[in-house]
Amino acid sequence: MNGGKRMKVDKTKCMYCGSCVGACPKNAIFLEETNIVFNDELCIKCWVCELVCPVGAITME
Amino acid sequence: MIIKESNLKKGLPKETESVCPECGEIIKAKIFDENGRVMIEKKCSEHGRFKDVYWSDTEMYLKAEKFAYDGIGVENPKIKAKKKCPFECGLCDLHLSHTCLANIDLTNRCNLRCHICFANAAAAGYVYEPDYETIVKMMQNLRNERPVPTPAVQFSGGEPTIYPRFFDVIKKAKELGFAQVQVATNGLKLADLDFCQKMKDNGLNTVYLQFDSLNDEVYAQARGRKLLDVKMKAIENCRNVKPKPLSTVLVPTIVNGVNDDQVGEILNFAVKNSDVIRSVNYQPVSFTGRIDKEEREKGRFTLTDLVDRLESQTNFLKKEDFYPVPVVTPISELISILAGEPKVAFTAHPHCGLATFLYIENGNATPITRFVDVEGMFSQMMRMAEKLDKAGFLVRLLGKMKSDFSKKKSVQKSFEKYFGKYIYEDELPKGLNISELLENVFSEHSKESLGEFTWRTLMVGGMHFQDSYNYDIERVKRCVIHYAVPDGRIIPFCAYNGGPTYRNEVEKKYSVPLDEWRKTHESG
C-alpha cells in the first residue's frame, strides 16, 4: 500500500503520551516504556496518528 | 469548634490587598460597587492602575458575605510566625482553612496540545514528573495534616492518566485513607473501557472530566482537535464500569463570548445523565500569562455571570438558588461535635465559589432550595452545634452509648424535630422523603452516605480561580484547595497558580530538561 511508505516517529520530538495509541483504528501502535512501535502490517496509513500527535512527531516516509 | 465567625470586612466599598499584574508586588486594592457590578481597582507605583470586574452582581456579592465562616487553620503548619500572606506558603500559621481537597500534579506531559495552554512539557521545555516514591511522600504529608487529615486528593497535570504508575498511585491513595480519590482528565484515555474499569478497581472515586462544550467546534478551536466523541465515550465507559458507575463531574472552563452560551445546554445534558454525572463544576476562565486589556475585558466571566447564564438558559434555576461554599460549614460543625472529632469544613472565602443542589426525578430538576429553607436550617444547625459544644463530653458519651440501630431511628426523629420546620412540605417533589435523604447524610459520618446523597442529586456550581487582575489576598488566606509539592509544602491553589505563582519555582527545581528526559527514552 502507498508504495511501501510507513509511519515514522521522530524521537527527538516524541513525548510518549500515547495519544496516537488510543487514536489508531487498527490498534497498530504500541507504547512501550521507552519506545513507540508501529506494526506496519496492521497500519492502513489513515494518518490519524499524525493528526492527533500533540507535538508533530509522526510523519509518513 | 472547627469554624468561627468570619473576620472579613463586610459591605462595600472595602480595602484589600492584591498583586500588580506586571511586577507581582503586593499592592493595596479597593473593592467597590459600580453600576450594580463589583469592581476591584489597584495602583502600582511603577506600572499604573488596573481595574477588573470582581463579581458582576453587587446584590449577590453582598448576600454571599452573610454566609462567611472562617476556619481555625491547621495545628501543625510548616511555616511558623509568618508575617505576610501570600509569601512563604507552606501552609503557614496565618492560613485560616485546612486542606479540603489537595491537588497533586503527576506530570506536565500531556496527550493534547491546546492553543490556550503553555504549561505542557513540550511547550515548557522540561518534564516535571515526580517519581512514585515522591508522590507517596506528598500524600502522606497531606494525611498528616491536623486536626483534619486531608480527606480528598485530586491528581492532575498535564494529563495525569499518562503517568507511568498511575494505577499504583490511585491504589496507594486509597490505602492512605483518602475518602475521595479523584482524577482531572481530558478523557482521552477514558475512551477505553478497560482503563476506566482499572481506575475503579484501584479505588478511584471520581472523574473530573474537562468538558467545555457540546459543540465540537469549541474543542477544535481551543483544544486543537475535535473531542466530543471522546468525551461521550468516556462518560459512557464511566457509566458501564462495574459494579457501580464511576462518578463523573463535568468541568467546563467558560470564556465569555466563546462558550458562555453553552452553560445551560451542558447542565441539561448532565441532568439527563445524572446516573453517572453527579456534578457540573464550571470554572470561569483565569487569565494567566500576558493578555491585552481588550481581550481580557471581552473574555472575563465571573461567578455571577455564570448564575445569570444558568438562569436564562435553563428553565429551572434562579439566582436565589445559589449559595456560597461556606454556607454548608454548620453541617461540618454539627457532625464534628456529634462524632467527637474534627471533620472537613469548607471554610472558603464567600466569593470563591457558588453552588446549589438539584433534586432529579424522572429527568426533571428542582433546586432543593425550593423545598428547604437553607438559611433557616443552617443557622439552626449552628445554634445547635454551639449548644452541644457547651454540653461537651456528655454529648459524645451519649452518642457512643447508643447502638447503631437506635441511632438511625433517633437521628431521623431528631431531624424531624429540629429541622422539619425548615422543609416546605407543599413544595416537596412527590418521590422525595427529605428526612430520609438527609438522615442518611447525618447518621453515618461516612462518605458512603454523602455519596448516595449526591447521587440522587446533582450539584451545580462554579469555582473561580484568581488571576493577577482580580487577585484578593483575603481569598488566598481562606483557600481550601491546595497543592502538595515534592519538598513537603502544601500551597493554596491561587498562590500556586497565581500571585506569587509557586508553580514556577517548584517545577524548575524538580524537573529535568526535555533533552535529558529523552535520553532515558532512547534505548528503543
Structure description:
The complex is a heterodimer of chains A (61) and B (524). Helices cover 16% and strands 23% of the residues of chain A. With 61 residues, chain A is of the alpha+beta class. Chain A has a two-stranded antiparallel ribbon. In chain A, strands 2-3 form a two-stranded antiparallel ribbon. In chain A, strand 2 (29-32) and strand 3 (35-38) form a beta hairpin. Chain A is globular and about 25 Å long. The two termini of chain A are 13 Å apart. In chain B, the strands form 4 sheets. In chain B, strands 7, 9, 10, 11, 12, 13, 14, 15, 16, 17, 18, 19 and 20 form a 13-stranded mixed sheet that branches. Chain B has a 4-stranded antiparallel sheet with strand order 2-3-4-5. Chain B has a two-stranded antiparallel sheet with strand order 1-6. By secondary structure, chain B is of the alpha/beta class. In chain B, a hairpin with a 5-residue loop joins strand 19 (481-484) and strand 20. Chain B has a domain at 186-285.
In short:
Chain A is of the alpha+beta class. Chain A has 2 helices and 4 strands; from the N terminus they run βαββαβ. Chain A has a single domain, classed as Alpha-Beta Plaits (2-Layer Sandwich).
Termini separation of chain B comes to 59 Å
**Biggest protein-protein interface?**
A-B, 20 and 23 residues
> Structural class of the helices, strands and pairings of chain A?
alpha+beta
Q: Counting H and I runs of at least 4 residues, what is the number of helices of chain B?
A: 20
Low-confidence stretches of chain A: none
Strand and helix map with partners:
The complex is a heterodimer of chains A (61) and B (524).
Chain A: E1 7-9, H1 19-23, E2 29-32, E3 35-38, H2 48-52, E4 58-60
Antiparallel strand pairs in A: 1-4, 2-3
Chain B: E1 3-5, E2 14-19, E3 26-34, E4 37-44, E5 48-55, H1 58-65, E6 69-71, E7 101-107, H2 121-124, E8 126-128, H3 132-143, E9 152-157, H4 166-175, E10 180-185, H5 193-201, E11 206-210, H6 216-223, H7 228-240, E12 247-251, E13 253-254, H8 263-272, E14 277-284, H9 293-299, H10 303-313, E15 323-324, H11 329-339, E16 353-361, E17 364-367, H12 374-391, H13 393-401, H14 404-419, H15 434-443, H16 447-455, E18 457-463, H17 473-477, E19 481-484, E20 490-492, H18 493-496, H19 502-509, E21 511-513, H20 514-519
Parallel strand pairs in B: 7-9, 7-19, 9-10, 10-11, 11-12, 12-14, 13-14, 14-18
Antiparallel strand pairs in B: 1-6, 2-3, 3-4, 4-5, 8-21, 15-16, 16-17, 16-18, 19-20
Helix pairs in contact in B: 3-4, 8-10, 11-12, 14-15, 15-16
